[in-house]
TrEMBL record:
Keywords noted in UniProt: Acyltransferase, Cytoplasm, Iron, Metal-binding, Transferase, tRNA processing
Classification via PANTHER family: TRNA N6-ADENOSINE THREONYLCARBAMOYLTRANSFERASE (PTHR11735), TRNA N6-ADENOSINE THREONYLCARBAMOYLTRANSFERASE, MITOCHONDRIAL (PTHR11735:SF6)
Reactions listed under catalytic activity: L-threonylcarbamoyladenylate + adenosine(37) in tRNA = N(6)-L-threonylcarbamoyladenosine(37) in tRNA + AMP + H(+)
Gene Ontology cellular component terms for the protein in this record: cytoplasm
Chain segments annotated as coiled-coil in the UniProt record: none
Binding locations of substrate: L143, V144, S145, G146, G147, D176, G189, N281
UniProt cofactor(s): Fe(2+)
Listed GO MF terms: iron ion binding; tRNA N(6)-L-threonylcarbamoyladenine synthase activity
Ranges annotated as spanning the membrane: none
Protein name per its UniProtKB record: tRNA N6-adenosine threonylcarbamoyltransferase
EC annotation from Swiss-Prot or TrEMBL: 2.3.1.234
Compartments where located: Cytoplasm
Length: 347
């Protein structure tokens, strides 16, 4: 990343195309979020039971520019009013990332604007800053989604220390795979969470993986196997399906909560941020809110619409880095794998 830029960027256009959602937003550091739009490809991928990368890329090509025009119109802006462009540069599906990066870089070049490639997980980590009462560092962040389950110590923006990571399946991935083996429709994670609301407490109990030993890493593949064996040995009735779903969700949520409390003790922080798609899980929100009230730490979630992938979090993260004088060279580059701790700090 090159420096410097002489002034704060003004309205920043954010583009998110890391997987199967096309997100666009405009964020201004002085005025906040001006507009955001989102198109989800869920219906298209449902026929295949999961995201098909080639189809995802093609759909981003079709939807991205119309969404840019719509978002700018909602914000009451033209392209000439923009001060910078931000886009997801990774991690994610390489073809999908290239669609967003190419469009964003072309727009920035044509307008003579600075552009910044944003780390997708930093976008999620900063999403609670979109709320009226944003948390201030230092804090511990739980980034929990279909591809990630990480605990991060946040000393400041760009000053990240990895405390714990998943050794196999991420929590969201375990939700999706467990839902699939139980015959639930795609997307499986939200379907399983809805079904769990009908389950009976105590009908089944599954282990809380890796909570019986020190450390902050996660492992959910064994839990998935426990559910499979319990489901195969059951009567497979609708009530039993709901009971198994509830027990599985309780095991995931309690495991995450235990590790979050350990991370707070280890870091000495008294603020906890939850971000990523699984952050929308109502049982997780309730469990951590209750724990915070009991144990004296604050818990911060983004609103539901900003838990899943979205352009607003990319526009925000990009605006902060552009204002700090960081921007990219003209080359178009994406990083399907990208270490969050390698990001430069924001002064």
């Amino acid at each position: 990343m090159n420096q410097p830029i002489a002034k704060a960027p003004g309205p920043v256009l954010g583009v998110e195309t890391s997987c199967d959602e096309t997100g666009v937003a405009v964020y201004d550091l002085d005025r906040g979020l001006l507009a955001h739009t989102l198109y989800s490809q869920i219906r298209m991928h449902a026929d295949y039971g999961g995201v098909v990368p080639e189809l995802a890329s093609r759909d981003h090509v079709r939807k991205l520019l119309p969404l840019v025009r719509e978002t700018l119109a909602r914000a009451g802006l033209g392209v000439g009013d923009l001060g910078g462009v931000a886009y997801t540069a990774g991690p994610g599906l390489v073809g999908a990332l290239l669609v967003g990066a190419t469009a964003a870089r072309a727009l920035a070049w044509s307008l003579g604007l600075p552009a910044i490639g944003v780390h997708h997980m930093e976008g999620h980590l900063l999403a609670p800053l979109l709320e009226p009462d944003p948390p201030e560092p230092p804090f511990v962040a739980l980034l929990v989604s279909g591809g990630h389950s990480m605990l991060i110590e946040v000393a400041g923006i760009g000053r990240y220390t990895l405390l714990g990571d998943t050794l196999d399946d991420a929590a969201g991935e375990a939700f999706d795979k467990t839902a699939k083996l139980m015959g639930l429709p795609y997307p499986g994670g939200p379907a399983l969470a809805r079904l769990a609301e009908q389950g009976r407490a105590g009908a089944f109990r599954f282990s809380r993986p890796m909570t019986d030993r020190p450390g902050l890493d996660f492992s959910f593949s064994g839990l998935k196997t426990q559910v499979l064996l319990a489901w195969q040995a059951s009567d497979r009735s609708e009530q039993t399906k709901a009971d198994v779903a509830r027990a599985f969700e309780e095991a995931i949520v309690e495991t995450l909560a235990i590790k979050c409390r350990r991370a707070l003790v280890q870091s000495g922080a008294r603020r906890l941020v939850i971000a990523g798609g699984v952050g929308a899980n109502r049982r997780l929100r309730a469990e951590l809110a209750d724990a915070g009230a009991r144990e004296g730490f604050s818990v911060h979630f983004p609103r539901f619409e900003f838990c899943t992938d979205n352009g607003a979090m990319i526009a925000l993260a990009g605006a902060l880095r552009l204002a700090a004088g960081q921007h990219e060279t003209p080359a178009i580059a994406v990083r399907p794998r990208w270490d969050l701790a390698s990001l430069p700090p924001v002064a």
